[in-house]
Write a structure and sequence with these properties.
Helix content is 24%, strand content 27%. With 261 residues, the chain is of the alpha/beta class. The chain has a single domain (2-253), classed as Ribonuclease Z/Hydroxyacylglutathione hydrolase-like (Metallo-beta-lactamase, Chain A, 4-Layer Sandwich), CATH 3.60.15. Strands 1, 2, 3, 4, 5, 6, 7 and 8 form an eight-stranded mixed beta sheet that branches. A six-stranded mixed beta sheet has the order 9-10-11-12-13-14, with no helix packed on it. The chain is globular. Bound molecules: zinc ion (ZN).
């Protein structure tokens, strides 16, 4: 399904209690999709995240990683590479390094990656134990071996002032001379969204649009997995203000269940 200039695909899903996603949600298990974007521009093709991939099961076969698979039941009907066929992907923009966003990276051996240096350091740091990475939903086995040679860090892109249509976000990074990369802090270290035309892919800044439209924040328990829950709430407030300032800007959240994909 096309949303503005971004074509969306559902690449796997997991199950969680709805009550975790937003206040007032039901205590019932719901299926949460992992949505990725494909932007086909005449000069290059860009993917926004890669979703889950069958290798997630490989990467979570042994302890401690098995805990991830046990606490978060995952289903992958069709990998992204199967869904997009032989589309040549030039760049993969990584919103953050959680397993449900980088599962398919190894399927694009010719693509360059665009990602946060801070986020990359957290997943690749040799001094951090596998267990403590796991508690942050980081599975380093999903990264291609040559990742470091193929990545362009967001923090090194030209920093630009944003137009008033994106306020209260005032600054971002310019990618490929036409996309704006904007920090959406709180959910994970080095969590970024990307503006493509009239669409803002906000990844995990919110899980459900009700957080934005009805101020129903995720369950307090989820602060355990948030990198910084104070920053998270500030980001939600900024997105709410943006939505008022520019109601026609389409916001795409990775795990939004009501999206028509
Ligand atoms: Zn995430």
């Amino acid at each position: 399904m096309r949303h503005g200039e971004i074509k969306l695909f559902k690449v796997g899903q997991c199950a969680h209690f709805e009550s975790m996603l937003f206040r007032g949600g039901a205590w019932k298990s719901v299926r949460i999709p992992a949505i990725v974007g494909l932007v086909e521009h005449p000069s290059e093709t860009l993917l926004i995240d890669t979703g889950y991939a069958p290798r997630f099961f490989e990467a979570t076969k042994t302890f401690p990683e098995k805990l991830y698979a046990l606490t978060t039941p995952v289903v992958v009907e069709q990998s992204l590479s199967e869904q997009i066929g032989n589309t040549q992907v030039d760049f993969v923009f990584i919103t953050h390094f959680h397993a449900d966003h980088i599962g398919g990276l190894r399927d694009f051996p010719h693509a360059s990656f665009i990602a946060s240096r801070k986020g990359y350091e957290a997943i690749s740091d040799a001094k951090t134990s596998r267990f403590s990475k796991l508690t942050k939903a980081l599975l380093p086995a999903l990264l291609p071996e040559d990742f470091a040679q193929r990545v362009l860090f967001i923090e090194d892109l030209p920093r630009v002032e944003l137009s008033t249509s994106l306020h209260p976000f005032t600054h971002g990074y310019l990618l490929l001379e036409k996309y704006f990369v904007i920090a959406l802090e709180g959910h994970a270290l080095g969590h970024y969204g990307i503006v493509v035309g009239e669409t803002f892919f906000i990844a995990d800044a919110i899980w459900d649009m009700k957080t934005l439209t009805q101020s129903r924040l995720p369950h307090p328990l989820t602060s355990l997995i948030m990198e910084d829950s104070v920053a998270y709430k500030q980001t939600v407030k900024k997105l709410q203000a943006l939505h008022v300032n520019n109601p026609t800007l389409r916001l795409i959240a990775t795990h939004e269940r009501s999206l028509d994909v």
